[in-house]
Amino acid sequence: MQPSWRDRRDQASRWWFYSLFFLLPLTAVFGHRGLAPWLLLASLPAFLRGDFWQAAFGKLFDHPGFKDAVFAGFAAMLAFSFWIFLSGVWSPKHDYGIFARILAPALVGGSIVWFSLNLSRQWAWRLGRAFALAVAGGMIILAFEGVTGGLMRDILPPKDVSPGGSRDIIALGRGVTALAPALFPAAAIAVRIWSRGAALGVLALGVVAAATNDVSANAVALGLGLAVAIISIDHQRVMLRLSGWGAIALLLLFPFAAALAPVEAIYEYARDQLTDGQLAAAASSLHRLAIWKTAGLEALSGLPFGFGADYARVWTETAPLIDVPGAPVALSTVPVHPHNVFIQVWLELGLPGVAALALFIYFGMKMLLRVKLSKAVGAASVGAFAAVLVSITVEGSLWQVWRLAAMALAASGIALAHGLEKR
């Protein structure tokens, strides 16, 4: 009997996913920005299925209403994206297409989540196993690169000509950042498919990769993620609420806290109490304080509508310099972004952007609370969200598509883990 068109389509989709999961570790190691196009390629099996449009978007708009957390969250994301587009009118860059950097990863990520939630049992096991192995494999290679000082990147072209190979070292750290949120659903899948020991092994690989690569925020992100995930095993709903409301509180309060930060007093204390070596190690963190204070004050002066999307990239050209303890030269108080997404939303999108993003977080929390998650999947959700929060609080930018793709990758892993538990 000849295989049907549906069978051939499913077989092609399976091998398509296997190929992509094979490439995922290499993408994280050799080009973390490639995570966004990787995500787009992974969405094709969903977008090419007629039942996707019927089931996903059809269900979304059959009975639209803000009592439905999924529809309300989708509406909040559309409102956020529309406001970004509209802010191009008064933004000095007048970039009307930049909203796609937010909306496209959201739609693509949503399609993969839908696809993951509607798999058969056999498909869920196949792709769940591939997801866990891909994330674990990525962390193994990143840990190897961290221990060897980037041996593979050094051997393969192009040659890094930056001082001390800093560009490659930073890129490897960003690779860990890209996979860190996905580590938690990978561990939840490992529990279901293999054992608790396998899950601990997956998490341990991430810890080693974070510790050996030169982005300290990764170690903080994984540490916090592990802590809250452990707590949420027995207190899932409390931790889901705490995570959601905590993110909203950070969004609402961070610019005010940053504007009031006693940066000069902290700098004086650091110069008096720390050695030269300690100052050099702390220079990046001390620089962040000046960036946040400057951007926070500017954000409050630009209310209610903000200065427009990607304003910081133009502002950096005229921003003042500051002598940061431990830094060899004066540094700009405004790099191309404020290294904090919450401040950036206030600075560039004002109160409407803040309101839309807060609603999106709220309805996302409400949706997770409505779903009956297993202990492992609930812990993975909270852990991944905590890792994302650390990343976007201390170094992220709203316009870095690969960071949004990393969130979508983690969400798809959570959907796969949840699908396995349901079956």
Tell me about this structure.
This protein has 423 residues and is mostly helical. Helices cover 76% and strands 1% of the residues. A hairpin with an 8-residue loop joins β1 and β2. α2 (35-47) packs across α5, α6 (121-148) packs antiparallel against α8 and α12 (263-273) packs antiparallel against α13 (276-301). The two termini are 30 Å apart.
SSE topology sketch:
Blueprint: H1 5-30, H2 35-47, H3 50-62, H4 69-87, H5 100-117, H6 121-148, H7 151-155, H8 166-193, H9 196-212, H10 216-232, H11 236-259, H12 263-273, H13 276-301, H14 311-315, E1 321-322, E2 331-332, H15 341-370, H16 375-394, H17 401-422
Antiparallel strand pairs: 1-2
Main features:
single chain; mainly alpha; two-stranded antiparallel sheet; 17 helices; 2 strands
